[in-house]
Amino acid sequence: MTPFQPVRLRDHIWHKSGEIKSVCVTACLTALGVPLNSYHYTGHANCSRRESILRRNGYCVRSRMSALGKQKTVGNARKVIRKLNDPAGTYYLVVVVYGGKGHALLLNDEGQTVVDTAPRKMDKRKIVSIKACFKS
User: Residue 89: left if φ>0, alpha if ψ -120 to 50, beta else—which one?
Assistant: First the structure.
């Protein structure tokens, strides 16, 4: 499965309810082929809304946090992902927290970055969630 061209919003979309459609999650979801108009909110770092959106669009979503062990950084996750026994073509939706802000990025089954709207050379951002996403 080849990812689609991600849609990059110019800025976050804040709704009156306080809900958000964020730049980073939108880029990750659209790279997986989820239509931009199929959801209104992407949620915050500790929200499961992203997983619900993916499931509605034909994806199986499974947590891989236990596979990371104690070193829960993006750099370590890249190594661990290569060793996982997930189906070929699996993508990993990674949610990190740094500087008090949440951020999402998408990695492929080789641990390479597919989408990251705030890339780093040395990636030591702390992972709060990592989900394996593959078509059901």
Answer: left
**Separation CA 76–CA 37 (nearest Å):** 34
Please check whether residue 129 is in contact with residue 65, taking contact to mean a CB–CB distance below 8 angstroms.
yes
Read off the pLDDT of residues 78-112 as tens digits, 9 standing for 90 and up: 999 999 999 999 999 999 988 888 899 999 999 99
d(CA 95, CA 48): 11
Coil/strand/helix, residue 129:
strand
**Hey, what are 33's tokens?**
């082929």
99 vs 17, 40, 86, 96, 121, CA distance in Å? 25, 26, 31, 10, 17
Size (the chain), residues:
136
